[in-house]
Amino acid sequence: MAKRLYEVWKGKNKFIFRGRLIFGPDAKSLIITLLLIIVPVIIFCTNVARNLFDETSGNIAGYAILMVTVVFTIYVLLLLLLTSARDPGIVPRNLHPPTEEICYDSSASIDVGRQTPTPRLPPTKEVIVNGVPVRVKYCITCQLYRPPRCSHCSVCDNCVERFDHHCPWVGQCIGMRNYRSFFLFISSSTILCIFIFGMSALNIKFLTNDYGTVWKAIKESPLSVVLMVYCFIFLWFVGGLTCFHLYLIGTNQVWHDAKTVSTRRTDNKKTTYETFRYRGVERPQVYDRGCLNNFREVFCSKIKPSRNNFHAYVQENERGFTRGMNSEGYIGNLDGNRREKVEDDREIGGDLLKISQRREAEDA
């Protein structure tokens, strides 16, 4: 009996509704995130908003405060769902790994003083992005050369395009297909914190006018102060994260790129050749199109469809693997010059013949 793709998926993801929704392996952390959002909102609506409704004598302002809180909370929860339950841009594992390239192996030799050419894959390839050479790495797990700005998430065990980071609060990787909803989620959460903080402070002000002192107002509505403290603390977290990602969007970086550049700038062990040969590699200037175009790329571009149909059936010979393009489909002509070194090197013809005969014998 044929199985669906999500049933034989080799990553660590969790699926519901027959693969229509995909989560990370730490999806249980969503429960904590939901409680951190819903519980304060319920306290606000049942206590602070009700007091403000009484203070405004039931006019339109009281209704507006309650409605804005409820509608905006639903909007934040919807963004959370879009971020955590969507394919972040997983690159399918390669069903047809690239052929091995003949390279020199210094660990073994046939004749004294000569290195033995052995078939193996180079760990990196070089592609041109906006006129700048960028090295892409070979992923042993997914058996493909990763596209530029792609990284393998150790938590989900998948290669993710434009990988930003794995967020434990949403239980999902943040990548090309859910970065927009993630940013809108944290920015909307920041606005919600500011709104609840402001309305709680307004409630204290009204109670101070009624009871004469701030202390009596606090005793009358202690939950208002609790909400103000709660929102102030979390405002530093989500507000700071929002500002940081505004910077990343404006410079067309991702969190992973920024950490990589920071690490490389403090690495004094690079050789002079590496410093000059690969200067500018995977740095923000490679992808930076200007602040306006960078924001337009994130918020106005169409989200690409998923490369994986987790609900689809898998053929018998594909069971245990994921459908998808091979590495040539992502990188283009990465392997176009794969054999140049072999063709140009005439001194190892005899050794190549030996290797070819040995491989034919093994295949037989």
TrEMBL record:
Q: Which Enzyme Commission number(s) are on file for it? A: 2.3.1.225
Which GO biological-process labels does this protein carry?
protein targeting to membrane
One GO MF term, please? protein-cysteine S-palmitoyltransferase activity
Keyword terms, alphabetized: Acyltransferase, Membrane, Transferase, Transmembrane, Transmembrane helix
Question: Which parts of the chain span the membrane according to its record?
Answer: 30-49, 61-83, 182-204, 224-249
Q: Which InterPro entries match?
A: Palmitoyltrfase_DHHC (IPR001594), PFA4/ZDH16/20/ERF2-like (IPR039859)
PROSITE patterns xrefs: DHHC
Where is each Palmitoyltransferase DHHC domain found?
137-253
Region feature Disordered, mapped onto this chain: 341-364
Sorted alphabetically, the Gene Ontology cellular component annotations on this record are:
endoplasmic reticulum; Golgi apparatus
Where is the protein localized?
A: Endomembrane system
Stated membrane topology is:
Multi-pass membrane protein
Catalytic activity, as annotated: L-cysteinyl-[protein] + hexadecanoyl-CoA = S-hexadecanoyl-L-cysteinyl-[protein] + CoA
- Recorded family membership: Belongs to the DHHC palmitoyltransferase family.
Record note on domains:
The DHHC domain is required for palmitoyltransferase activity.
Give the protein name, as stated in the record: S-acyltransferase
Tell me the lineage of the source organism: Eukaryota, Viridiplantae, Streptophyta, Embryophyta, Tracheophyta
